[in-house]
Design a protein that fits this description.
Layout: E1 2-6, H1 17-30, E2 35-38, H2 47-55, E3 62-65, E4 68-69, H3 75-89, E5 93-98, H4 102-105, H5 116-132, E6 135-140, E7 145-150, E8 160-162, H6 167-176, E9 179-182, H7 187-204, E10 211-220, H8 226-237, H9 244-251, E11 263-265, H10 267-280, E12 284-289, H11 296-312
Parallel strand pairs: 1-2, 1-12, 2-3, 3-5, 4-5, 5-8, 9-10, 10-11, 10-12
Antiparallel strand pairs: 6-7
Helix pairs in contact: 2-3, 3-5, 5-6, 6-7, 7-10
């Protein structure tokens, strides 16, 4: 199991955020981590633009979006931006896509949220052809009538991963993409639901074994601080729990809240929990570092200790 880290979800001064994200990506590469994942948050920077910025200051580490909602951009625009981002990253970019949630698409963006899985399938009809270039993109389906030239050449193919939670989306991810990116999925949900659906679909389509990228909060702390770490995780990361999509995924596992997914405690406790994700079928971790402490300096120190542990586990969780 490869270890990666989320970069960019933390709040702070936006005047210095780009510099902090670059520093975090540089640290991940120097620490030997496999990947960096940039979430697309409704009130935050554009994730794919951020990936390009991070790709320009790194040389080895994979950098991906987790995830870009398809409703916010035309598939040709997504393809053009992905091709440009891949050129900057020199073959290290992975495009994570999702259908978002009704409360974002309908309530925030004022767009319809009808049959999201079908919308993704139709979107991929266009995107697949556009990313396969160069040449004319000619696609007509229920959502799109596209006749567009796209002649970008000499760019490494871009892997696509889907935020897939339910059976239909997991089948789509397995049949047509390189795998899935998960959030709020515990070990039971991954082993009993995600991996079987995804693997079956990939095998039926004759595709390689799919990737399972799991977002997991992690906090290295004293055992007597675990409850505090869980409480903080619930407080700062619980917003997504309101989504019916995530609630269904939680119902398939043992976790009731995001804090139940937290790998927390001393070194042995954290490593044991992370190994359980590998045993469930996770191929890649996208770690959300959750610090504990009183005040800025203690929180920074806590994050640093967790990062040091992650670096020490590189290659040890296979």
């Amino acid at each position: 199991m490869r270890i990666g880290v989320m970069v960019g979800p933390e709040r702070g001064r936006y005047a210095t955020k780009v510099a902090r994200m670059r520093a975090d990506a540089t640290w991940a590469e120097e620490a030997g981590l496999a990947s960096v994942w940039v979430p697309q948050i409704p009130d935050e920077f554009d994730a794919m633009t951020a990936v390009a910025l991070l790709g320009d200051v790194t040389e080895r580490v994979e950098i991906g979006t987790a995830v870009v909602p398809i409703q916010t951009r035309h598939p040709i625009a997504t393809a053009q931006q992905a091709l440009a981002t891949q050129a900057v990253c020199e073959g290290r970019f992975s495009l994570g896509l999702g259908v978002s949630h009704h409360w974002i698409v309908e309530d925030m963006l004022g767009l319809p949220y009808d049959r999201p899985a079908r919308a993704m399938a139709n979107y991929l009809d266009v995107l697949d052809r556009a990313l396969a270039g160069p040449g004319h993109v000619d696609v007509e389906n229920d959502d799109w009538r596209i006749h567009n030239p796209l002649d970008v050449t000499d760019v490494t193919p871009t892997p696509v991963l889907l935020a897939a939670l339910g059976p239909v989306m997991l089948r789509l991810a397995g049949e047509r993409t390189d795998g899935t990116i998960l959030w709020l999925a515990d070990e039971k949900a991954i082993a009993s639901h995600v991996v079987p659906h995804l693997t079956r679909a990939a095998e039926s389509a004759g595709r390689p074994a799919p990737r399972v990228v799991a977002g997991v909060p992690v906090c290295l702390c004293r055992p007597d601080e675990v409850d505090r770490a869980v409480e903080r995780t619930n407080r700062i990361l619980s917003e997504a729990e309101v989504s019916p999509n995530y609630q269904k995924l939680l119902d398939l596992g043992d976790a009731e809240r995001v804090g139940d997914l937290l790998a927390a405690g001393d070194e042995a406790m954290v490593e044991r929990r992370l190994r359980s994700y590998a045993d469930a079928g996770v191929t890649d971790l996208s770690v959300r570092v959750v610090p504990v402490g009183d005040g800025r300096e203690e929180l920074i120190a806590s994050s640093g200790r967790t990062r040091e542990l992650l670096a020490s586990l590189v290659g040890a969780l296979a």
